[in-house]
Every structure is written in structure tokens, then in C-alpha cells.
Design goal:
The complex is a heterodimer. Chain A is built from three helices and nine strands. Chain A is α+β, with helices and mostly antiparallel strands. Chain B folds into two domains: 293 residues, no CATH class; 221 residues, no CATH class. In chain B, the strands form three sheets. In chain B, strands 1, 2, 3, 4, 5, 6, 7, 8, 9, 10, 11, 12 and 13 form a 13-stranded mixed β-sheet that branches. The two termini of chain B are 33 Å apart. Classes of the chains: A alpha+beta, B alpha+beta.
């Protein structure tokens, strides 16, 4: 009986801890790949992937919230470069497919995306837009 | 002569009720552009925007002349077959000053088919749309009152009822409202323009009720609760034109109300004529020239299509829906109903910023991870200077993007048409093309449909514009014109389907666009 209770406690703790881990993707901020901009009319900042393509569409990351580090559990950050590679958004030199990147983010299981910039944590929304 | 004075009197009375009080003034040319009036637009004037001279003239010129003004009385006519309005005198365009504001409103002499009715046209601008109205005064000559007795009605340029009052010796005594008990359309045929007087029977009085409107709506005439302001002051104002006599308790535009101080909130239907209670006499029921007291317009929810458009974009959207082209209906119907996976939210914003080019654009469609709502943003600022057809093109272009989002993200079983779309989309995704797969696919699969939808919209909804450009159908517009419109927003991105056109085909599109584009109407008028 005692063993059963202990196992339940351990299992519950694992799920509770895992909930955030499973639902959140931490991405290490990389200023070589990202640029931060402020919307000229609205009160928010957003990040775009640096590329020099003459674009008609874009995937960008709206900063929705600043998260305090002490509210976050231990986590592992993923490098943005790896995500871009996995998304197959680069389809040839200096060409970038924003829909591919969005599609990648849209399909991953994590609902919350957090950029980790040193000690700063930004919760971002992933948006695709086309003219 | 008395009629002439009276109609001027009544116009000034009503216009004063709108904008505090007015003085007549000759045509002004110092309202060259809106920027000159930035300090008043959208601020103290509330929903009403200042029209500039060009806008007013453009609107007037849209009223096609039945005969050149130098060949007669100078009257252009809205519609040669109109049974209501003979025309407006383009040469009589003047801007009426509004005291205590910098606002001026354009007015023109108008002539109805019924010569007993004195009429004046005036223009207002709301939500970037220019709207034309008539103030029609039918004097009861059987009454020998010192001041005006009869009916003063406000209609649109086609004679559709907006509002109306009966006056006796200069006092408002009753208001006309749309009857709650509208008869069925079949019975209306027999009683067209009939009027029931539920609150007061005045049928024996002159003038006839139906001489100032041209409408299928049945009206009730209801007593005014408490008398409206005695307009004897206004009589003096008119008889002493130039010596401004302010109406005392007029509430200013800052209140958002346009009446003569105090009173109710207005109603265009039912038996409560509160729109004219106290000492108020609103020109527009509920002070809303666009919708009157119809509150259902505010946020149209067409199942899962949320419409938050305003101004010209709203007008074009409604007309596109009205035209019901197969193409646009088919797209939008995919978002209707509780079973649809995605919603569409169509929003007007003054300026729509494109993160792609760091500039302001006509429209954008966006989709956020985790949501089921596709957002379409339409720029009111850009729409202002564009033709109605061009704004319609933008709306349809963004609809197609929304449709593509849906097709790319749906978890439902795909139809054959959706499978075909995906095959084409994948081809562009895998290949080495200049534009995005969405624009490449739109160019290959949708351009003809967009062009066809625009043509149908032009012919069936923008009929006056089409008739004008096609010389009443004698010289139909080339299909190249609509094709060229459809290519806009695509060819700039070097889509393959456009690059594949021959130079002759491209030149034909360019020529067709140049021939008609600048002559198509920029005014979206609500019927």
C-alpha cells in the first residue's frame, strides 16, 4: 500500500513537472538570426527572421509577455538555428520560406513558445501574414 | 418665391440642427484637401467628416447628366429613368458654413418629378463614405399660415424614406416613422407608397403624403410628444440671411447629437417618435445616416464570419455579398456554420502595416498558431483613394488567402477541388519560383475566377458605373480590364503564370487597365 502511494506521488510530480516541459518550447535567442522591431502603430514588439528576400509573406513572433525566470521550472532551450533547419524553411541560399516555418510551429505539440535571451524570457505568439 | 424661401428656410433649419447653425456662402475653394481640415475631422465633429470640394464635386459628377448643363437648367440627373428625382444642379454647389465650427456641408438645388415639392440635396461623409440626401418640402398651400405648414421629408437620392416631419405654422407637430406592420410585398404592390396614419388621421390635409418619397415602405405618422422648437427664429434667420440668429439651445456636434437641445434618442420605427421629442428634430433617425435605428448592423456575425469593417470597405463588402457571385460565396460559405473549422474576422484599420516590407498596404491576411481564426485587415486609409472595384479586388484577394489557409490546415477529408489545390500548391512549394506558393497558386488557379467575380460585381451591383463606362452596354468593357485588376497584387511578385503571358497579352492587360481604371467610381453608395 505504502509503495503504491509513493509511486502515485512520484507519477503525479512527474506529470506536474512535465506539463510545462511538454507544453512549452524554449528557444535560445540568437541575434544573428533574429531582429527585433516595434510595430509603428501598435504597442508591441515583434521578432522577424533575418533574411534578405523580397518578401510577400512573413512569419513573425509577437512579444506577448515577459516571464520572470523564478516562475519557470528547470528547462532546456533549443537553438533557433536547429529549429530553422528542422522546419526546412531555408530552401536555397538566402531564400527563406516563411510558410514552412509557420507550418512547423503550427504543427509542433508545444502551445507556448518562449524566447530565452540571457536572463530575460519572452513569451511570443507565432503569426503568419501575407499581403 | 415663398416656397423658395421656405425650402431654404427648412434646409437651414435642418442643417442647423445637424451642425449647430449655418450661414449660406458661395462656393468655396479653400477646402482643397482633407489635411487642411485635420484639426476638425474626427475630433469635434464626431462621426461626421469634412468633405472637401473635390469629393463633393466628384460625388455630384457621379450623378450622370441627362443633358449637359449648358443646354438647359443645369440639372444633372441621378437616373434618366428615375420616377422621383429629375436631377441636381451641379452649378449650384455651395458649402454651408456651420457656426462655431470650421465645418461646411455641401448643398445643391434639386428638382423632383413632382413640381410641388421643393428639394435641396446635401452631402455628408461618414466612415469615409460620401452619402447624398434630399430635404424635400411639400407645402400645404391650403393653410394660410404665416410660416411654413406642410411636410418636410428626408430621403436618399432615390427617394427612399429616411425621416420626415409635419409642420404647422413653423412648428413640428408630427413625425413620420416606418410602420412596424409592413404589408407583404404582394400587397405592397397594390398599396405602393401607401401610408397608414395610426396616431393621427391627416389624409384629408394637403399635401399628399406620397409626393416627397418614392418608397415601398409603409409609414405611420405619429404625434410629437411635446412640441419641437418653434422655428420662427429660423424664419427670422432666413428672412435676415447674413444676420445669423442662433437657435438658442442647439446642441453642438461635440455631443454627437444633432438636434435642437434636449429630448429623446430617436427612433425610426414603431410608434415612439422619440427622435423628435423635446425640442429635437434629428435629420437621421438615431443620428445615424448609415443605418438609422437599426442596431443589427453593429457587428454582423454571419455564422462564423465576423465583420468589423467600416466605411468604404464595409460598403464594398456588403455589395459583394449582395451581388452573391458564385466565387466569393463559395469561399465565404466554407467559413459559415457551426461545423466550420475556421472563423474569419474581417477588420477595418486606418492603416495596415506590413511586417514584410515595413510599409502600409491595402490589406493583409494573417493566421496565428493555436487559433482557428483567420484575420483579414483592410486599410481604410488606402481604400479612400481607390476605386470601388479595386477595393473589391483586395477583399477577394484576401478571401482567397483565407481560403488557402483553411485548405492547408484543415483536418477534414479533402474534396477533389481541395486536392487539386494542394497538388498545385505542392508543385510551387517544391519548385524554384519567384513568388510564394500561395501567390503562385492564386495566379495559376484563381485569377480567372477573381476576374469573373469582379466583372459580375461591376455589371450587377455597380450598374450605374458600368452603364456609364460601357455607354449603357453598347460598348461592353473588355474582359482584359477585369483580368488586369485580378493580376494586381500578384504580377508585382513575378508569379510564373504572369511571366508566361506573351508580351502582347501583357500589353493588352495594361491598356485595358489604363483605359478604364481611372474612370471607375470611387464612391460606394449605399442604396
Amino acid at each position: 500500500m505504502k509503495t503504491t502511494i509513493s509511486l502515485l506521488v512520484i507519477a503525479f510530480s512527474f506529470c506536474a513537472f512535465g506539463q510545462e516541459k511538454c507544453d512549452t518550447l524554449f528557444i535560445k535567442y540568437d541575434d544573428k538570426l533574429l531582429q527585433k522591431r516595434k510595430h509603428p502603430l501598435k504597442d508591441y514588439f515583434y521578432y522577424t527572421i533575418k533574411d534578405y528576400d523580397n518578401k510577400e509573406d512573413i512569419t513573425f513572433f509577437i512579444v506577448e509577455d515577459t516571464i520572470k525566470k523564478n516562475t519557470l521550472k528547470k528547462h532546456k532551450s533549443t537553438r533557433l538555428k536547429k529549429i530553422l533547419k528542422n522546419s526546412k524553411a531555408y530552401y536555397k541560399k538566402d531564400k527563406f520560406d516563411d510558410w514552412e516555418l509557420f507550418d512547423y510551429f503550427n504543427k509542433i505539440k508545444q502551445n507556448t513558445i518562449i524566447f530565452v535571451d540571457g536572463n530575460k524570457y519572452y513569451k511570443v505568439g507565432v503569426v503568419y501574414a501575407i499581403e | 418665391m415663398r416656397n423658395l424661401i421656405d425650402i431654404k428656410l427648412l434646409l437651414i433649419a435642418f442643417v442647423s440642427f445637424i451642425f449647430v447653425t449655418c450661414n449660406s456662402e458661395d462656393v468655396i475653394d479653400d477646402i482643397a484637401n482633407e489635411t487642411a481640415n485635420d484639426d476638425i475631422v474626427g475630433a469635434s465633429l464626431g462621426k461626421y467628416q469634412q468633405l472637401n470640394f473635390e469629393e463633393a464635386l466628384f460625388f455630384v459628377n457621379e450623378i450622370k447628366p441627362e443633358k449637359p448643363s449648358h443646354e438647359g437648367d443645369g440639372l444633372g440627373t441621378l437616373n434618366a429613368s428615375s420616377d422621383f428625382l429629375v436631377g441636381v444642379d451641379a452649378n449650384s454647389l455651395v458649402f454651408e458654413d456651420v457656426e462655431n465650427t470650421k465645418h461646411k456641408i455641401p448643398t445643391l438645388k434639386a428638382q423632383l418629378k413632382n413640381p410641388q415639392v421643393e428639394s435641396t440635396a446635401f452631402l455628408v461623409k461618414v466612415q469615409d463614405s460620401v452619402l447624398g440626401f434630399l430635404i424635400n418640402a411639400a407645402e400645404d398651400k391650403s393653410i394660410g399660415d404665416e410660416k411654413f405648414s406642410g411636410i418636410v421629408g428626408i430621403t436618399d437620392l432615390s427617394g427612399n424614406f429616411v425621416n420626415g416631419y409635419r409642420l404647422k405654422n413653423g412648428e413640428f407637430v408630427s413625425q413620420f416613422v416606418v410602420s412596424k406592420d409592413q404589408k407583404s410585398k404582394d400587397s405592397v404592390g397594390a398599396t405602393k407608397r401607401s401610408l397608414s396614419f395610426t396616431a393621427k388621421t391627416v389624409a384629408e390635409e394637403m399635401p399628399r403624403w406620397d409626393c416627397w418619397i418614392y418608397s415601398d415602405s409603409q409609414l405611420d405618422e405619429v404625434s410629437v410628444y411635446g412640441k419641437l422648437g418653434n422655428i420662427s427664429n429660423i424664419g427670422r434667420r432666413v428672412s435676415n440671411r447674413g444676420v445669423s440668429v442662433r437657435g438658442g439651445s442647439f446642441s453642438g456636434p461635440t455631443t454627437g447629437r444633432f438636434g435642437a437641445g434636449g429630448g429623446g434618442t430617436g427612433s425610426s420605427s414603431g410608434s415612439d417618435p422619440s427622435g423628435s421629442s423635446g425640442s429635437e428634430a434629428e435629420i437621421f433617425p438615431c443620428d445615424d445616416p448609415l443605418h438609422g435605428c437599426d442596431t443589427n448592423f453593429a457587428e454582423e456575425e454571419d455564422d462564423k464570419i465576423f465583420n468589423k469593417l467600416t466605411g468604404k470597405a464595409l460598403c464594398v463588402y456588403e455589395k459583394l455579398r449582395e451581388s452573391g457571385t458564385d466565387f466569393t460565396d463559395k469561399i465565404l460559405n466554407q467559413f459559415k456554420g457551426d461545423g466550420s473549422e475556421f472563423d474569419v474576422l474581417i477588420i477595418s484599420e486606418e492603416k495596415v502595416f506590413s511586417q514584410t516590407h515595413n510599409k502600409f498596404v491595402n490589406g493583409i491576411t494573417s493566421y496565428k498558431k493555436g487559433g482557428n481564426q483567420i484575420k483579414i485587415f483592410i486599410s481604410t486609409d488606402k481604400a479612400k483613394g481607390r476605386s470601388v472595384l479595386s477595393v473589391a479586388r483586395t477583399l477577394i484577394h484576401e478571401y482567397v488567402h483565407a481560403d488557402m489557409f483553411r485548405k492547408l490546415n484543415t483536418t477534414s477529408e479533402l474534396t477533389q477541388e481541395e486536392l487539386d489545390f494542394k497538388t498545385t500548391y505542392e508543385k510551387f512549394k517544391e519548385g524554384n519560383f519567384n513568388a510564394t506558393p500561395q501567390h503562385e497558386t492564386m495566379a495559376e488557379l484563381y485569377v480567372s475566377s477573381i476576374a469573373e467575380a469582379l466583372k459580375e460585381f461591376h455589371k450587377t451591383v455597380l450598374t450605374k458605373d458600368y452603364d456609364y463606362l460601357s455607354n449603357d452596354g453598347a460598348k461592353p468593357l473588355s474582359d482584359n480590364f477585369y483580368q488586369a485588376l485580378a493580376w494586381q497584387g500578384l504580377k508585382e511578385h513575378d508569379v510564373q503564370a504572369y511571366l508566361d503571358l506573351t508580351e502582347e497579352e501583357k500589353a493588352a492587360l495594361k491598356n485595358a487597365l489604363q483605359t478604364y481604371y481611372h474612370d471607375t467610381t470611387k464612391n460606394c453608395q449605399k442604396e
